[in-house]
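Data follows
____________
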Amino acid sequence: MIAQESLKLGIKASRNATLALAFLAFVKGAVGIYSGSTVLIADAVHTGLDIFASLAVWIGLKISLKSSGKHFPYGYYKAENIIALFVSLLILFSGVELLKEGFTGVNTTSQIEFQGLALVTAVFSVLTIYGLSIYKRNIGTRINSQSLIADAMHSYTDVFSSMIVVVAVLGSMLGISKLDSFGTIVISLLIFKMGVESARDSMLTLMDAWLDEEESERIKKDIRNIPGLIKLEDLKLRKSGLVVFGEATVEVEGETDLKRVELLSEEVKTAVRKEVENLEHIVVNVKPVQRKNFRLALPVFDRNGFQAKLSGHLGKTPYFLFVDLEEGRIENWEVFENQFFNSDKKGGMKAVDLIIREKANVLAVKTVGEGPYYMLRDNFVKILQIPDGVDTAREVLDRFQNFEEITTPMK
């Protein structure tokens, strides 16, 4: 789901919640006045105040939907985070108010004349607000809206407030006036903790902190696995409302041409989008460096290691020798059978697929056709031409850094 569609869905959810709260506040207020229930009237006022929180989220999301302007080149997305902070402060305020109620006790005297009606209204309020909190949380999680999730948390705190009203009415009916005090104190402390955590996340996001370290590590791992990339030097991500902006700095071999750099940049962006749904924009800085570590692929006739005879044909070679070199030192080597060397069709392309799967970044070969050449180039595998007179893998290892690079397909 793109950011604009997500914002529209969030706006619809916050609008529906605002209208539902307005209706609920009216019902509780009317029943409270009719029945003489002061606690129900107080809860109606509380719900009336909650309308402003939901309305604030609605306005914040609508502001975020505005196109970027002259003074806001990155858009108005941060408005959503500011509203999330505001709602978090309301959660804190609700926690403090409930704590006061817990210590002073809820007024549940026998002044309630229509206790049954008041009880039904209080239960209806609990169910309605709980349903609203679930609705807003599901939409907020779906579109990754911090303010809508915070508002859902705020509504969830109001469930407990309305439950206190239910207990107060029941206590009035049973002649027990202080039944809810202890529960109110415990609930208010939980609400206060929830508000602190929500406010902390909102403030950190406004300060461009990235809170999901696990997601960041997954992205870095995916980027490091991109063929042709020598090193991921840095990755910076920041959230702005529903969307994410980023910057990545990667190292590639110095001789890489512009077209291949563009392909690499797209691979990096794809790796980030795989984990970040609402990626608005990411800048990829490409730094050319001299490669020091190589994984060299050689087409050979046998499994005799460095004494193996070289094969002159990429697709028809029986085996491939892969050698890992770090700053000129041989660290490891292994031989893989080319299962398609007797294939009549596209043997070269299938051989290249093996080379790419084994993450070779250099191929030394005597000749290469058009299809395999472009497939290797697109996957950032450097192609070196083995000169006449070089017949074994050992000779290639001794001299390959002086070989000329193949820059066009060979017939």
Summary: The first helix runs from residue 3 to 35. DSSP finds eleven helices and eight strands in the chain.
